[in-house]
Amino acid sequence: MAALALLILVSFFLGLGSAPLFDVDEGAFSEATREMMVSKNYLTTWLNGVPRFDKPILIYWLQLASVKLFGLNEFAFRFPSALGGSVWATSIFLFMRREIGNRQAFFAAAMMVLSLQVMVIAKAAIADGVLNSFLAITMLSLLHHYKTESKKALYLAFAAAGFGMLTKGPIAVIIPFAVTFLFSLQERSLKRWLGMLFNPAGIVLFLAIALPWYLLEYHDQGMAFIEGFFFKHNINRFNSSLEGHSGSLFYYIPVIILGLMPFTGLFFTLLFNLKSLLSDRVNRFLLIWASFVFLFFSLSGTKLPHYMIYGYTPLFILMARALPLNLHPRRLALWPLLLLATLACLPLLLPVALLKIDDGYIKAIIEGAMEHTGQGYLLVIGATIAELSLIALLPRISAEWRVIATGIIFSLLINLFLMPLAGELMQEPVKEAALMAKKRGYKIVMWKTWNPSFLVYSESFVEKRTPGPGEIVLTTVKGLEALDNPAVLYRKHGIVLAKLRP
After folding, report:
1. Residues 280, 281, 284, 286, CA torsion sign
2. What is the pTM for the complete model shown?
């Protein structure tokens, strides 16, 4: 357990506040929390002075408590997600330890902690790190109830689902409902499933946790809340592509391959050994869970990379159980080495991309990336490739520790180098422009861009419209081209703060 705690510290908390808030999601969540703190309205969230019905209230309450404890900064906004990721990893460890033993329990939880997509989500000021902790507790408690008929486990599942409903809404109920139904159907135990689903004490517990805020919010906002939250941000997300987030049926295949890095090779080991693993009842439950998430969101009209994470918990457990079936554990290093080799080629690829892209803003980001991918960048990537190659070649190391060592090195690269680099390139200009506006008392019009993190750092509202004579506008170099010779006050990596002529 101490080793897992150390990995959590390195992966989730190291460098937690090192990068500026990323737009759009981190900026939007954080600004809604800031406005809650200023307005002291702890019931309804607002963004730039407009009601925000995207998510339920719990993540904002947690971020608000963190800000009051640590101050208005990136660490504070992200701390609840890191805490949620820690609970998530602990729930995997405790379940696996009870089922199999310490060794595979640690390995499954460690893979979760050190995987690329989970690492990013657990360090992001959004709702998904917290949601996944509640979802993991719900599902693993239900699985334990299936095996033991433990009432305590069933009530824990209902309670966790209630908090999940308060964190991100119906998805916290849809996944447990559908997976347990399909599992019971496969086991021919639908009568037992109905008894579990309609447990009176469990339902009362769930409603006591989740229902009060929904009723109060409806009383406060009326049908605007129903239409904004349930219809727009839940039903419409499945029926149609919301905010341009669409994709093909195969959208989540590359997401999984990249998101499970550096453990992608074990995912394929799992796929190649499904037949032998499916003889175990627990494995069947886990596979139904992962498969449902993949199919449900593949059929959804709105597709976002982090949706697949709702099915990662069973994948990590199954991958841990599949590792002994891998005949060539050293080859597992090929996937992260392939990714690193691609990163090493960026200095060659960026100039080619620059010639093929017409968008001025994207070109400015590429030019900035070219400045940051020189000899120092290549030295870090090259050293990481050498370290992973050495781990793969060293003799007399167990497969588990070979994989974990790879994950630790990969985590350090992401947390200490690549994440701060991405923040400096993409978000540092927004933060610097916001701090300039705050210092000089500028009233800002935001045009042809949407950077809610600007509101967090400037601690002010903006108007989203076409700027008029004499006004100060935040835009991009692409938007700057449409303005009539404004005075540029700040310009970096495509972000521009400019004053129009009177």
Report:
1. negative
2. 0.92
